[in-house]
Fold this protein.
Amino acid sequence: MPELPEVEVLVRHLQPLLRRRTIRSVTVFRPKMTRPNSIAQLKRALLGCSFTDLQRRGKYLVFSLRQGRSPKPIQLLGHLGMTGRFYLRKQHLPMPRHTAVVLGLGALDLIFEDTRVFGRLSLDLTALERLGPKPLSPGFNPAVFAVALHKSAQSVKVKLLDQTVVAGIGNIYASEALFLARIAPTLPARDLNLKQIQALTSAIRRVLRLAIRRGSTIPLDWEGTGPRDGLFYYGRPDQTRTAGEERLRVYDRAGRPCPRCRTSIHRITQASRSTYFCPNCQPQILC
DNA sequence: CACCATGTTCCTTG
DNA sequence: CCAAGGAACATGGT
C-alpha cells in the first residue's frame, strides 16, 4: 500500500465516506501502534467526535474531527507502515487476524489492519513537521530540490527515500523515477547536474501522478477479500495485460528486459534496500 | 533454515 | 552539531 499514490487513492476513497460520521467506540488491539498515546488518551479524545475531513501529507493520513459543535478541531495521524490498511466494514463481523484499531461508527466500523505492526494511529502530529516539500506542488521544483541534493555525498536513490528532501516517495517509486529520468541510482546526490535535477523533478511528478491515476481506475477491494487486497502496484489482477502495459518498469523486475532497450534489469542493494535499474539507460558514467 | 518485503526511528560512529 | 550506516520494530511469503 504505502507510498504517496496508494495513500492518495485511499484518502480520496475514504474521505467522503467518513465525513460527518461519529466515533462511538474505540478498540485498540495493538497498543504499540497508538504511541505515544495510551488507549485511554485515544478514547478520551475521540469518543463522540465526528469526522470533518481527511487529507494526505506525504505518506501520512491526517484525519480531522470535531467534538460536537465545538469549533476546536482534533487531528489524528495515521501511517500505513509497510502493510497497513484502512477500510470501512459492517459492524459486528469477526475481527480480521491483524486488526490493530477499530473505530466504531454506528452501522460501520473503520478498521485499521496491519500485519507487520509498523503503522501508526495517534494524536501526535509532530512527524509532519519533518516532512519536506510536496512533490506534486510548486514548492517542489528544481531549485529547491538542488539545494537538498547539493551537499550530500549519499546516492541519489537513498536521498529520494529521505522524507525531509521530498515527502512521499518510497522504495518502489524511487527506482521508477530514476529510470524515467535516466539517472543511475548510485550517482552521489551532489554530482547531479542541473539538467538531471530538472529531469528527475519531472520524472518524480510523472511517476506519482500516473500511479494515482491508474490506482484510481482500479476497483479497490479494501476489505481484502480479493486476490490483491486493494493493492495496485502490480496491475489489475483480473485482467490480462501485455508486457508493455506493466505498471512498474523496473521495480522487482531483475533479469527481465528493460522496456526501453531490452537490456536485463539489475538489482543492487543500497542502504539495505533493493534498487532496480537499467544499466544501459541509466549509465554510471556520463557520456 | 535462509532471505526477502511498499517504512520510520533510534542508536552508534566518525 | 551533523551525516551516514545499521539495527530494530513484527510477521509472513518463498
